[in-house]
Specification:
The complex is a heterodimer of chains A (123) and B (240).
Chain A (H helix, E strand, L loop, with lengths): L1 H20 L6 H18 L12 H11 L6 H5 L5 H38 L1
Helix pairs in contact in A: 1-2, 1-3
Chain B lengths: L4 H9 L2 H21 L8 H16 L3 H13 L1 H7 L1 H6 L1 H5 L2 H25 L4 H7 L6 H10 L4 H25 L5 H23 L1 H29 L2
Helix pairs in contact in B: 2-3, 2-4, 8-9, 8-12, 8-13, 10-11, 10-13, 11-12, 12-13
Classes of the chains: A mainly alpha (123), B mainly alpha (240).
């Protein structure tokens, strides 16, 4: 389990280093995700990489554990609402309504485009 | 010497241990309620954990920075959890490669809609410029959105609140909205949840369906990328 966690942290660390070193406009963990995916794919090609947490499902076990409780990780940032009570008192209702409309429209725009293109591809 | 209860509280309320314990305990309760209601959208565990903890902080007069000294250990795991999305993505790689084209077009449609709609609506409502700029990147994951907000000289902590609100509302709305629209393709449903409602939408998608979760994770990651470029452009185009 520790080796699996270390492998994930290592991917993130390399991601952060590259992002900062080249000042890329993307988050370090996203590059870490790409890196870990490449390593997992490479493991199937080259047997010599399949060692430690990559051989015994260690990375897989830790990842599933983290993702199972993904929502918990947003609680601390959300509690930050206590710092913004003044803005919410002034514009709270407008902000909530606008965000609600925007998120609904975005959901529909994305899902309908996805369905349209995959239907066109089947023709 | 025996400490009186008041000084005990003063010491304890400053310690990370208390706030980490509060965060995990309240979430454990709201999550078990969510499970008990078979993941009903309105029993969203993030939403209920946030307001309960927020009320607790207000009642005890605890500043957010003190709370965060304990809660930061939870927030830290957001980075590793993003990396961990590689695993379900790897497990479903065949399914994902067949859907590349619909994903890329939907990504553009979704991220443009997310940024434009919020800028146009906040302007129409006559909100102050700082609020408009702070809300613009609200559909991407918190760390990225706060970075964008900083480059726009907006208020990153207001952005964080808008991000979480968007995520929670997206997670609540997505299932009934998709069911009512008759969309049964869990790839498309998940992808939309990730684009519109980042990690909270992704967490919701994983609760509903594994395939939806994979596509939500992809949507969230890709949107972080596109919105970083798009928001400054949209702001210059729409704010003059």
């Amino acid at each position: 389990m520790i080796a699996g966690l270390a492998a994930i942290l290592l991917s993130q660390l390399i991601g952060e280093l590259v992002v900062r070193g080249l000042s890329l406009p993307l988050p370090g963990p996203v590059l870490g995700l790409v890196l870990l995916l490449v390593v997992l794919l490479a493991r199937d090609r080259f047997v010599m990489i399949a060692r430690g947490p990559l051989a015994d499902e260690g990375v897989e076990a830790v990842s599933r554990g983290l993702l199972k409780h993904l929502s918990l990780l947003f609680v601390p940032a959300g509690v930050g609402v206590v710092q913004k009570l003044d803005v919410l008192a002034a514009h709270g209702i407008a902000i909530v309504l606008i965000l609600l409309v925007s998120v609904t429209v975005t959901l529909l725009a994305t899902v309908l485009t996805f369905r349209l293109i995959s239907r066109l591809m089947r023709l | 010497m025996k400490e009186n209860p008041f000084s005990l509280w003063v010491n304890l309320s400053q310690s990370p241990l208390l706030w980490l314990t509060v965060t995990l305990t309240i979430y454990a309760i709201t999550d078990s309620v969510s499970v008990a209601t078979r993941r009903h959208p309105l029993a969203n565990p993030v939403l209920h954990a946030i307001w309960i903890i927020a009320i607790f902080l207000v009642l005890t007069g605890t500043p957010y920075t003190v709370y965060f000294s304990g809660a930061q250990f939870v927030q830290f795991l957001l980075g590793p959890a993003t990396v961990a999305l590689a695993v379900p993505l790897y497990d479903n790689r065949k399914l994902v490669t067949t859907a590349i084209l619909p994903m890329l077009v939907a990504l553009l449609a979704g991220s443009i809609t997310a940024v434009m709609s919020v800028i146009l609506l906040t302007r129409a409502a006559g909100l102050p410029d700082e609020v408009i700029l702070s809300l613009a990147p609200k559909s991407v994951t918190a760390a990225v959105a706060m970075g964008i907000s900083e480059t726009l000289h907006a208020d990153p902590s207001l952005t964080a609140v808008a991000v979480i609100l968007t995520g929670i509302m997206g997670a609540i709305v997505v299932t009934p909205l998709m069911n009512r629209s008759g969309i049964t393709d869990f790839r498309a449903r998940g992808f939309a949840a990730g684009i519109a409602a980042h990690g909270i939408g992704t967490a919701r998608a994983f609760q509903v369906d594994e395939i939806a979760g994979v596509f939500a994770g992809l949507g969230m990651s890709l949107n972080a990328l596109v919105t970083s470029f798009l928001t400054p452009l949209a702001v210059t185009a729409l704010m003059r």
